[in-house]
């Protein structure tokens, strides 16, 4: 199993890159978003990877974060979503956007991805809604690799430096944790936090907004 590659970006195509790891060239397929975030050709780069093995095919898929890779694994577990469909969804929304869309039951956002129809988008939301809370918590624990900071001469086995996690993602994870401690169901908490994110990006604000949405209706 190839879980991560660190090397030099030798070539960048429309949906794949060629990564030179100590003289061995690996073709790695990436989403549009990941491709856009990569440094220029000939720069050092690091990617988390997922290896697809079939009887007549072996393909590597690359991701900037573990969260993105885990969403890829979950998305491809849904009937009708193959590797290309997963990359299309991640390219359109990013892993954080996928977390929010699924937490909110927003199939319309999933449908924006190229090649994903309304029935498949609805299936994604229905089958993965229970996974959204854990994936949202992962956002704060999963800072992206800083590809530009990877030394070309560094041993491949060494982990590259990482950037601090985004403030909003950390705040959402903290809000989810607080709501879980209050006894709210993970799916309900994730939906409420995702809705509250349109009004606040700090932990106290997200908790207040989520609690308003979780409060029993008087009607």
TrEMBL record:
Residues 156-168 are annotated as: Flexible linker. One of its GO terms (molecular function) is helicase activity. Residues 1-62 form the DNA helicase Holliday junction RuvA type domain. Pfam families: HHH_5 (PF14520), RuvA_C (PF07499), RuvA_N (PF01330). It is found in: Cytoplasm. The RuvA-RuvB-RuvC complex processes Holliday junction (HJ) DNA during genetic recombination and DNA repair, while the RuvA-RuvB complex plays an important role in the rescue of blocked DNA replication forks via replication fork reversal (RFR). RuvA specifically binds to HJ cruciform DNA, conferring on it an open structure. The RuvB hexamer acts as an ATP-dependent pump, pulling dsDNA into and through the RuvAB complex. HJ branch migration allows RuvC to scan DNA until it finds its consensus sequence, where it cleaves and resolves the cruciform DNA. This is Holliday junction branch migration complex subunit RuvA. It comes from Jannaschia pagri. The gene is ruvA.
